[in-house]
Design a protein that fits this description.
Elements lengths: L3 H20 L2 H15 L6 H8 L3 H4 L6 H27 L3 H10 L4 H18 L3 H24 L4 H20 L6 H16 L4
Helix pairs in contact: 2-5, 2-7, 5-8, 6-8, 6-10, 7-8, 8-9
Length: about 210
């Protein structure tokens, strides 16, 4: 006859693991993988490390993903959707004046903790992209999508397409620089840069 005292804890552990596995979603793994990418880099994003962080077994990972590569693709998709597609959809749904949209786009790097977190994720993914073709392709696609949207805003203001592209690229390069160089300058200096960029980009050159 089995020893009740020895089997009960085992059943309890299995039940706890099963309950944890049912609570976890693919998004839980993606969020943890993204956080680990930001903190430790892509080499640390491994199934065994994530399972330990989440308090589950390695096997529970495979309820949601075929392998690590599928998880990494999901991390990139989550970043692309959250930092680009959903943002563009939100801007487009406002049906705002293109000049107002450009002004709001210029302000994105200065939106407190949300901007800081977005910049940390972006920096980690761009570091990953320097050594991985899949990440590089994702970054290139995101850059092109963002520049295209900004270019459309300048086109809507009546700038010729070639000039709109150049202004769109310049605005995007400014946004990336402010996000990556967030420690350069105090609040007043950042406000001065922002005002100058806005004035330059929205002024027509005759």
């Amino acid at each position: 006859m089995p020893d009740i005292q020895s089997t009960a804890p085992a059943r309890h552990r299995r039940r706890a693991t099963d309950e944890r596995r049912t609570v976890l979603t693919p998004e839980s793994w993606i969020a943890s993988a993204t956080a680990l990418l930001v903190d430790k880099g892509i080499d640390s994003v491994r199934v065994d490390v994530l399972a330990k962080i989440l308090g589950v077994t390695r096997g529970s990972f495979y309820w949601h993903f075929k392998d690590r590569d599928e998880l990494l693709k999901s991390v990139l998709k989550g970043w692309r959707d959250g930092a680009t597609e959903l943002l563009i959809e939100r801007f487009e749904s406002k049906d705002a004046d293109p000049r107002e949209l450009i002004t709001e786009l210029i302000s994105l790097p200065f939106r407190g903790r949300s901007a800081q977190r977005a910049a940390r994720i972006e920096l980690a993914i761009r570091a990953w992209a320097r050594r991985d073709d899949m990440a590089r392709q994702a970054v290139d696609e995101v850059d092109a999508r963002r520049i295209s949207f900004i270019t459309q805003c300048f086109c809507a203001l009546g700038f010729p397409i070639a000039e709109a592209r150049a202004r769109g690229f310049t605005l995007y390069a400014y946004e990336v620089a402010e996000s990556m160089l967030s420690n350069q300058g105090n609040a007043a200096q950042k406000a001065e840069r922002r005002a100058l960029v806005e004035r330059l980009l929205l002024t027509r050159i005759d």
